[in-house]
Amino acid sequence: MCIMAEHFIDYMNAKELTISKKIRLMEGVYVFDLAMPETLPFIPGQFVVLMVAPKVFRSYSLVAINDTIMTLLIDVRVGGPASQFFEACEPGDTLQLIGKALGKFTVKESDRPKVFIATGTGLAPFVPMVKQLLDQDAQADVQLFFGSRHMKDAYCDSFFEGYIDAEKHPNFKVFNCISRPEGEMKENYYDGRVTNVIPAQLEECGSQDFYLCGNPQMVDDIQAILKEKGATDNVHTEKYG
């Protein structure tokens, strides 16, 4: 996930990061491991500000921090200076981490079931948020709706396999929403955008906690749908663009 980050910049507190791994998930979307000089405390759902070139700052949601390795999920299809850097970079290249982990888009404490809704790299903050919930309670009632255009682009399942053992968490359900399906749908794949699948899967929306992240239009559309189905102050959002 990427947000313009000028107002978060702490120029005096920069640390060098080194790209240690670059994995292509699909055309234009990569997973990066970045080596840090020391570990970085963070709350699942927070983001970091990176400087990829002089005066080129972007913020990215944290997928994970394992000791001194930071993992990010980055879409380079926007085509701006940061996208160009991450498209062209190779292991060994460096960039700067500015300040500490930031943001208040985190899991709110409650006993209600949790529903996460994402498109694209809006999935990034949900990886540690869902992991946190399931680490605390293996039986937690958690649903994740992930929107993709094509089945080949639906990397949600394979991505989560690296962080969560689904067999140990029977109440964790993933709904892959495919807006342009081709061929026979696999198990837990659904025909339609998230805006079409959610109304069919959720009868009412007043008794869960909802977390939305992704394209601003999707976030606005889902909020309207949830409100019609009873949601009030139980919807938490993060937009990117």
Q: What attributes does this structure have?
A:
241 residues; six-stranded antiparallel β-barrel; 5 helices; 13 strands; globular
Description:
- It is a single chain.
- With 241 residues, this protein is of the alpha/beta class.
- It is built from five helices and 13 strands.
- It has helices at 81-88, 126-136, 156-161, 194-201, 216-228, and strands at residues 2-4, 14-26, 29-35, 47-53, 56-66, 69-75, 94-102, 114-119, 142-148, 172-178, 189-191, 209-214, 235-239.
- The strands form two sheets. It has a six-stranded antiparallel β-barrel. It has a six-stranded parallel β-sheet with strand order 11-10-9-8-12-13, sandwiched between helices.
- Strand 12, helix 5 (216-228) and strand 13 form a beta-alpha-beta unit.
- The N and C termini lie close together (8 Å).
Q: Report how far the terminal alpha carbons are from each other.
A: 8 Å
- Multimeric state: single chain
Strand order in the sheet with the most strands? 2-3-6-5-4-7
Q: Over all CA atoms, what is the radius of gyration?
A: 18 Å
Beta-strand portion reads: 35-45%
Please provide the ordered H/E string of secondary-structure elements. Answer: EEEEEEHEEHEHEEHEHE
Structural class: alpha/beta
Number of helical segments?
A: 5
Outline the low-pLDDT stretches.
3-7
* Helical percentage: 10-25%
Largest sheet: 6 strands, antiparallel, barrel
Give the overall form: globular
Mean pLDDT: 91
Q: Got a strand count?
A: 13
